[in-house]
Amino acid sequence: MMETVFFLLGLGFSFLVYFLSIRPRDLSLTRKFFYFILTLIGITGTLFLFGVVAAHFLRKLGILS
């Protein structure tokens, strides 16, 4: 469950970066798509991995069931 929350946070933040930073720039559609994919993989993957590691240690400590 915790991993899913962090994954969705990563997706949301990636779209926020796209709409606020990448979309307004004067770039070609191909370059915007490339930047969006890199952002999506980087931010979402990092937050998802953080969620997995955090959930693992919380389960190991017995805080998360």
How is this structure best described in words?
This protein has 65 residues and is an all-alpha fold. It has helices spanning 2-22, 29-61. It is rod-shaped, with a radius of gyration of 15 Å. The model has no long low-confidence stretch (mean pLDDT 94).
List the helices and strands and how they pair.
Layout lengths: L1 H21 L6 H33 L4
Helix pairs in contact: 1-2
Can you tell me the residue ranges where pLDDT is under 50 for at least 5 consecutive residues?
none
Q: How confident overall, as mean pLDDT?
A: 94
Number of strands: 0
Distance between the termini: 11 Å
Q: Tell me the strand percentage band.
A: under 5%
**From the alpha-carbon coordinates, what is the Rg to the nearest angstrom?**
15 Å
Q: Note the overall shape.
A: rod-shaped
Major sheet characteristics: none
Coarse structural class: mainly alpha
Order of helices and strands: HH
Total of DSSP H or I helical runs spanning 4+ residues:
2
Helix content: over 70%
